[in-house]
Amino acid sequence: MGNPQPSQSLARGPMFGGQSAPEIRALYLHIPFCHSICPFCAFAVHGNRERLHERFVERLLADLDLADPWPAPGDIQSIYVGGGTPSTLAPARIETVLRRIADRFSPALGVEIAFEVNPEDATGAYLAALRGLGITRISLGVQSLDDATLRALGRGHTAAQAAQAFDAAVRAGFDNVNVDLMFGAPGMEVLPFREDVRRLLAWQPAHISLYGLDLEPRTLFGRNARIQAWCASHREEQAAQFLWAAEALDAAGYEHYEVSNFCLPGREGRQNQLVWNGAAYLGFGPGAHSFAEGRRWAHERHLAAYEARLFRGERAIAFSERPTREQAANEALMLALRQRTGLHVTEWEGRFGLNWGLRRAEVEGELVRRGLAVREAGRLRLNVRGMLVADEITERLLVETPDATGAARP
Known about the structure:
It is built from 15 helices and 19 strands. The chain has a 9-stranded mixed beta sheet, with helices on both faces. It has a 3-stranded antiparallel beta sheet with strand order 12-13-14, with no helix packed on it. The chain has a 3-stranded antiparallel beta sheet with strand order 15-17-16. It is globular. It has 2 domains: about 15-275, pyruvate-formate lyase- activating enzyme (Alpha-Beta Horseshoe); about 325-410, Arc Repressor Mutant, subunit A (Orthogonal Bundle). It has helices spanning about 55-65, 90-105, 125-130, 145-150, 160-170, 190-205, 225-235, 235-250, 270-275, 305-310, 325-335, 345-350, 355-370, 385-390, 390-395, and strands spanning about 25-30, 35, 45, 80-85, 110-115, 135-145, 175-185, 205-210, 255-260, 260-265, 280-285, 290, 295-300, 315-320, 345, 375, 380, 400, 410. With about 400 residues, the chain is an alpha/beta fold.
């Protein structure tokens, strides 16, 4: 096999050969460091200190070495490096991690390697280095192109820096760039948001992730009564932002292939598609989740706890469970309804040995009558208005699962 020189692309070099043996299809690497903690973020994050990077990478390598189950050569089709802020790490440290993955797991030829970058880190030199390491997809955490909104969101970049970051990614040779954009941000009205979308469409990124502000209880925004009140009183405006953006993106040629994700034809995020369609994946790093062999587990969220367990030679698993048939059916239902392809009802029933029943048939009929879904070729598929309330619809359709007493609950 042999190791390529640093200038060679890890994604296209001989390190990423191997025969196809589909089993564990994706890897997720969580880099927890952030220049500052966004007030809406509920992920496992840690303030950035460069002196912590070397030890963290050593523990992450140990985490990779302890993988169980172990992917077969050629299994891995997607590697996603997220956070946190992966772009806090120097390219040399990123290369060390990618080499270990190549040596240990032998991912498939043509593996997609996606990497999250904050605009303030996206210099031409940094992006060129990532490209040289074989990164094939960049995701820019832009969130907004309005400076006032960026300040309200606690972001560390300006709208001008975001535009410069996208240009730098293109100049570095990336033709697969995702841009994150947020709607429903505190204080943002409909018209300024529309201008964000128009400006973003002028860039023509390959992929756009459109996220609504989610008030998680343990975040600063989630504990702020003023923010909570604003969001509660502007739900109609938030819905209008999403619906207008979805229509504008459709008119510009973007395919709405999942609730929050739009892409130019053929540019769907590979990691997204694999996970949403039930593929097994392994997560590494603090708070990372995994799903394989009918079991799911998660790592210690806090950096110190994660590192301490790996230092002792232990896997850093904080939580593990084997979902019941009903739990697995509900998860498959949720993931299917979030996608444009929708849920093939009879296949889903057969897979889990279920009968959807009269009550759910009534709910399905109601969704169609209200213009939130369509039924075609045996599939229940949400339209754009249905996707806006996908979580609420899923909640109404869940399979009953037994509680601790054995009694059924929806």
